[in-house]
Amino acid sequence: MSLRIVVCVKYVPDATGDRKFADDLTVDRDDVDGLLSELDEYAVEQALQIAEEADEAEVTVLTVGPEDAKDALRKALSMGADKAVHVEDDDLHGTDVMGTSLVLAKAIEKVGYDVVIAGMASTDGTMGVLPAILAERLGVPQVTLLSEVKIEGGVVTGRRDGDAASEQLEASLPAVVSVTDQSGEARYPSFKGIMAAKKKPVESLDLSDLDIEAEEVGLEGAWTAVDSAAERPARTAGTIVKDEGEGGKQLAEYLASQKFI
Amino acid sequence: MAEILVYVDHVDGAVRKPTLELLTLARRIGDPVAVALGNGAADTAAVLGEHGAVKVLTADAPEFADYLVVPKVEALQAAYEAVSPAAVLVPSSAEGKEIAARLAVRIGSGIITDAVDLEAGDEGPVATQSAFAASFTTKSRVSRGTPVITVKPNSAPVEAAPAAGAVEALTVSFSEKATGTKVTSRTPRESTGRPELTEAAIVVSGGRGVNGAENFAIIEALADSLGAAVGASRAAVDAGWYPHSNQVGQTGKSVSPQLYIASGISGAIQHRAGMQTSKTIVAINKDAEAPIFDLVDYGVVGDLFDVVPQLTEEVKSRKG
């Protein structure tokens, strides 16, 4: 039977742009170009590699997001994913991680899966907890933060490099996997891939398709509330000296004046 | 006063500093009740008591080491049910965040991750977070259930606050879910003898300008003269010059030391995201136009191969 891989991806504001908050303290999506979160490219890459190794596999990319989030799906399709699912609904605006994970879990169950693969974190929210929450919601093993991953005979194995130790993990499918940026560089879409992606199916779902009530998601349905967001004051301009042979000593003098030595 | 559950990060009974910082924050909003799991759990009680833990709930079982994350979630959940706390605080390590997140789902609560400060508020604890590569500061709170909040290292001082620290055994029975992901082997990281990157008071980092793995000895020598941790930019890590466990930046560690010294690092957004909240920032870079100089309190435009060794010698001689 074909190995069903679902990759969760996020459409995020470009981290090199001037990111800010909208008036309702959600992430402003209008003034900065969006794109497929860089860290999710690693998830797409590992999904494609696993699919290439498998006898038969199908890679579905899934996102929850506004209309423009199709760009992220299109990128993943052009890298080589087979099909895409886009959950889009006006009531989703302002949804927090609990709501997003609920929507993803329902969509994953609807699509059908053997393994879910996600990136280590998004580049905008940067929480890094969604894969663990998905595993909890789906009731399947979490095999997360892997630098190496392999799926063989219905078993996922991988290496998790933690602060104190490097661990080898093993779990039976179905499972939720997340991969780090150490898992292997993501491929660039080829011209052929970009052309092929235009013909690949993108299924759109809304909340009613997933039997989710509007109150369970969105800003009002969030289980957390942001009360304020303030731009961090620019750091006051420091002293810059040019090294004329005494730069190290001058720096030591500064560190001594600040009581670091 | 309301009780606050504090999840203890420890290595065989030796409590790591971020947990003591959590006790400082927990005391602002209630009475800390610590939860220590795994080998050496009961040995944590003395130091936790000295820092304000009124109670220390402990449990040890092979499952904590043999299976990933979920056994710890189930133990923390058992503690939550036993104590009915006003909030649950967990150190913001990769594992800590996953434990906290799964607990939050189970108890129907919202979660805030990577708080850098915490204070009492009219509607529950208010968490301060950094957003968008630390260019914004937000204040948030959990609006449903019992707040579950993970806190980054260096977010609060460690304070002595003697309390009972009475040890109580926590009864945990594991569900089938707890043993879903087996840890088949574990290779401890070799100790460098240097402070933990995220906990260090001083961090010395090297980037592309270091130009080779062998040259990191210069960075390490400066770090050792200052008793600092060593960091590396993504460029240096991707080039294979330094381990990923030392990467500072968006996809590595986020640090907030008293002093951050960036050598041969241009200061791309990816790196700034991980160090921008440092108290004092110093940079050494050949390129006077490098964006890192926008952040610094003191910068030297020059060749790090001249400046860093000279600085190291000067630090050594001043320290005697």
Q: Order the strands across the largest sheet of chain A as they lie in space.
A: 9-8-7-10-6-1-4-5-11
Order of helices and strands of chain B: EEEHEHEHHEHEEEEEEEHEHEHEEH
Distance between the termini of chain A: 65 Å
**What is the helix tally of chain A?**
7
Largest sheet of chain A: 9 strands, mixed
Strand content of chain A: 25-35%
The 3D shape of chain A can be described as: globular
What's the total count of β strands of chain B?
17
The CATH topology of the largest domain in chain B is what?
A: Rossmann fold
Number of helices of chain B: 9
Low-confidence stretches of chain B: none
Description:
The complex is a heterodimer of chains A (261) and B (320). Chain A has 261 residues and is an alpha/beta fold. Chain A has helices spanning 38-53, 70-79, 97-111, 130-138, 191-197, 218-221, 247-257, and strands at residues 3-8, 11-13, 34-36, 57-64, 83-87, 115-119, 142-152, 155-161, 165-172, 175-179, 202-205, 224-231, 239-242. Chain A is globular and about 70 Å long. The mean pLDDT of chain A is 95. A 9-stranded mixed sheet of chain B has the order 9-8-7-10-6-1-4-5-11. Chain B has a 5-stranded parallel sheet with strand order 14-13-15-16-17. A two-stranded antiparallel sheet of chain B has the order 2-3. In chain B, α4 packs across α5 and α6 (216-226) packs parallel to α9 (304-319). Chain B has 320 residues and is an alpha/beta fold. Chain B is elongated, with a radius of gyration of 21 Å. Chain B has helices at residues 17-29, 45-50, 63-66, 70-83, 94-107, 216-226, 234-238, 269-275, 304-319, and strands at 3-7, 10-11, 14-15, 31-37, 55-59, 87-91, 111-119, 126-131, 136-142, 148-151, 166-169, 182-188, 202-206, 229-232, 259-263, 280-285, 298-301. The model of chain B has no long low-confidence stretch (mean pLDDT 96). Chains A and B meet through α3, α4, β7, β8 and β9 of A and α5, β7, β8, β9 and β12 of B.
